[in-house]
Structures are given as structure tokens and as C-alpha cells.
């Protein structure tokens, strides 16, 4: 059933749109056009609008039918409007949809976890490369969050086993549901705990995308960061952004021995300080850039 423009006006008014923002529309293409205008402050207004429409219509966002004029029921229009309003207020699309894709794998995301970021794929790629010739690798992930990193690794390596730690019980719950959805709970053990405290020896690698933003950084004022958990973003250890990296450098050898290594994501401009600390601690270290050219991942190993 398509809605009449009278219905549309009633619903958009109910949703809180001002008169000037209302546009009579009873088709998906019209809704997309209007939403794109309203989402002009987003990085990708058209994509956002299409993802929301796909979610409301229970279609894949790549579905070609989204490019045609589709009929929507009144409740679908209402849902589309509510979700568009949330996006226009700066809420990350991933929280609105309740799911996100990382390394090609679908994950549930809630405001209890960081939305997995594309640059973190480098952490997974480099990790896979380092483990290429290691049969039955055993790894530890610190700060599992949604489970994005360990799920990508375990899906790519059917012989991989992992212990995945997070301080946040709510993040652990989300990670558990994601691991279950990917049928990985038999290979990935989840532990609520602090840093590397819950584990000792005999692993091949420690991997982590730790909190590394300095409190007060303007990055935190950005809409996307405002909605994400502070404990996933802010370095509350040394408070200079490198506290977690130092703690992991100090502790990783206890978990991997002298043949294993440590792989960590870092923020723009942090790589040299981390490499320096690793070298001062008696290790060798190197970094690699992400697709934007930012040195994003640091690898630390014994000399
Ligand atoms: C930047 S998020 C990374 C989440 C996920 N691995 C990813 O890459 O999308 C950092 C995670 O570390 C967790 N965390 C913060 N402090 C921690 C600590 N002391 N020990 C263990 N995990 C911690 C946070 O709860 C958060 O889930």
C-alpha cells in the first residue's frame, strides 16, 4: 500500500519535521531525495539514506530494487523518518541499524561497543600475514569490543584459537552474540578482565586495537565519537594516548614468549612514540600505513 500525501504530512509532522522540511512523497525515491537533503551534514547523505531505506524494507543495501520506485506502507515511512531523524542528529548509522560490516562480516553493534572502523582492517590483514606459516595459531585479543577483529581472524583461519578480553561486561555480551552468530564460540574464549591479566604463556600473538585518544581531543567532539563509549576511545592510563600501548609492550612477552609478537593499532602520529618505547624496552618494532597513509599499526617482537 502506498501512502497518500495527506498521511505523509500527518506522519512527518508527528515525527517532528518542520513544515519547510516536509515534502509530499509517497514513494521510496521521493523519501530518499528528501532524506538526502536533510542529511546534508553527514559524510555520505545518499548512502546513509539508502542504508536506512534498505533496513526499513529488510533488503540488502546493494539490492538493485532500491534504485527503483518502491511502495512503502505507512509504518515503513514512519520508521524511515524516525531513523533519518536519529541520523540527522549525528548518531552513527551502525547504532541506528544495529549492525555493521567489518572485513566482509556482519556484526551486531550497540552503543556498548565501538563501531568497527575500516582502518582496523589493516590490523587483521597484518595479523593474518604474520600467522601465515603458523599452524594452529593461538592468539590473545585485548579489547574485543564487538568481536570484529577476532571474528575476522577466526573466520579467515579455521585453525585459529583465541582468548578475547574486555573490561566492559556489556561489550562482552555483544561479542558473545556475534561469536555465536558466526559459530565461533568453540574457538574463541571470552574473558571479562583487565588488559593481559587473565592470560599467561603459550600464545603466538597478542593483538589489540586499544583506546588511544587523549581526553579533550577535538576528535571526541565529532558526532560519531559523542555516541561511542568513552572507555573504548580514551586512554585513561597515561592519558597521552599511548598508555595502553606501553602496558601491552610491558606485558605481552609473558603471554607469547620470545617467539611471539604484539600487533597494535594506533592513532595518527602515535607510531613513532610507540616504536621508541618498544626499542627502549628491548624489542624491535615497525609500523605500517593504512589506506589514508597514516601509520596505523605497530608490530613489536623480540630482537
Ligand atoms: C577501540 S575499542 C576496540 C574494539 C574492537 N576490538 C574493534 O577494533 O572494533 C577498545 C576496547 O577496549 C576495551 N577496554 C578498555 N580498557 C580496557 C582494559 N583495561 N582491559 C581490557 N579491555 C579494555 C573497551 O571496552 C573497548 O571495547
Low-confidence stretches: 1-25
CATH topology of the largest domain: Rossmann fold
Judged by helices, strands and strand pairing, the structural class is alpha/beta
Give the tally of structural domains. 2
| CATH class call of the largest domain | Alpha Beta
Shape: elongated
Order of helices and strands: HHHHHEEHEHEHEEHHHHEHEE
Q: What is the residue-mean pLDDT, rounded to a whole number?
A: 91
> What is the CATH architecture descriptor of the largest domain?
3-Layer(aba) Sandwich
Strand residue percentage: 15-25%
Radius of gyration: 22 Å
Summed up, the helix count is 13
What share of residues is helical? Answer: 25-40%
Strands ordered across the widest β-sheet:
5-4-3-6-7-9-8
Main beta-sheet strand count, sense and barrel state? 7 strands, mixed
Oligomer: single chain
- How many β-strand stretches? 9
- Through-space gap between termini: 69 Å
Query: What small molecules does this complex bind?
Result: S-adenosylmethionine
In CATH, the homologous superfamily of the largest domain goes by the name: Vaccinia Virus protein VP39
Output the keywords.
binds S-adenosylmethionine; 13 helices; seven-stranded mixed beta sheet; 303 residues; alpha/beta; Rossmann fold; 38% helix; two-stranded antiparallel ribbon; Helicase, Ruva Protein, domain 3; single chain
Describe this structure in words.
α2 packs across α3 (45-56) and α3 (45-56) runs antiparallel to α4. This protein has 303 residues and is of the alpha/beta class. The protein folds into two domains: 5-89, Helicase, Ruva Protein, domain 3; 112-302, 3-Layer(aba) Sandwich (Rossmann fold), CATH 3.40.50.150. The radius of gyration is 22 Å and the shape is elongated. The strands form two sheets. Strands 5-4-3-6-7-9-8 form a seven-stranded mixed sheet, sandwiched between helices. It is 38% helix and 16% strand. The structure holds S-adenosylmethionine (SAM). S-adenosylmethionine is lined by residues 113-114, 116, 120, 142-146, 148-149, 165-168, 171, 194-195, 209-211, 231-232.
Amino acid at each position: 500500500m502506498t501512502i497518500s500525501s495527506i498521511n505523509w504530512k500527518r506522519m512527518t509532522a508527528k515525527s517532528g519535521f518542520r513544515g519547510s522540511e516536509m515534502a509530499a512523497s509517497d514513494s521510496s525515491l521521493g523519501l530518499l531525495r528528501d532524506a538526502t537533503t536533510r542529511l546534508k551534514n553527514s559524510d555520505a547523505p545518499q548512502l546513509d539514506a539508502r542504508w536506512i531505506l534498505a533496513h526499513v524494507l529488510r533488503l540488502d543495501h546493494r539490492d538493485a530494487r532500491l534504485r527503483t520506485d518502491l511502495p512503502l506502507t505507512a509504518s515503513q515511512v514512519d520508521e524511515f523518518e524516525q531513523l533519518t531523524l536519529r541520523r540527522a542528529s549525528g548518531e552513527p548509522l551502525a547504532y541506528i541499524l544495529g549492525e555493521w560490516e567489518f572485513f566482509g562480516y556482519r556484526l551486531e553493534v550497540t552503543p556498548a561497543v565501538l563501531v568497527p572502523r575500516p582502518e582496523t582492517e589493516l590490523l587483521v590483514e597484518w595479523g593474518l600475514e604474520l600467522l601465515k606459516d603458523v599452524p594452529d595459531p593461538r592468539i590473545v585479543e585485548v579489547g574485543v569490543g564487538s568481536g570484529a577483529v577476532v571474528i575476522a581472524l577466526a573466520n579467515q583461519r579455521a585453525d585459529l584459537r583465541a582468548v578475547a578480553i574486555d573490561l566492559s561486561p556489556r561489550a562482552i555480551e555483544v561479542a558473545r552474540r556475534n561469536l555465536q552468530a558466526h559459530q565461533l564460540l568453540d574457538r574463541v574464549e571470552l574473558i571479562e578482565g583487565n588488559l593481559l591479566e587473565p592470560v599467561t604463556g603459550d600464545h603466538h600473538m597478542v593483538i589489540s586495537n586499544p583506546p588511544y585518544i587523549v581526553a579533550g581531543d577535538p576528535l571526541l567532539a565529532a558526532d560519531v565519537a559523542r555516541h561511542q563509549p568513552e572507555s573504548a576511545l580514551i586512554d585513561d592510563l597515561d592519558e597521552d594516548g599511548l598508555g595502553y600501548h606501553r602496558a601491552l609492550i610491558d606485558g605481552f612477552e609473558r603471554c607469547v614468549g620470545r617467539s611471539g609478537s604484539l600487533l597494535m593499532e594506533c592513532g595518527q602520529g602515535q607510531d613513532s612514540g610507540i616504536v621508541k618505547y618498544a626499542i627502549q624496552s628491548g624489542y624491535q618494532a615497525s609500523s605500517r600505513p593504512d589506506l589514508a597513509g597514516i601509520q596505523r599499526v605497530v608490530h613489536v617482537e623480540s630482537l
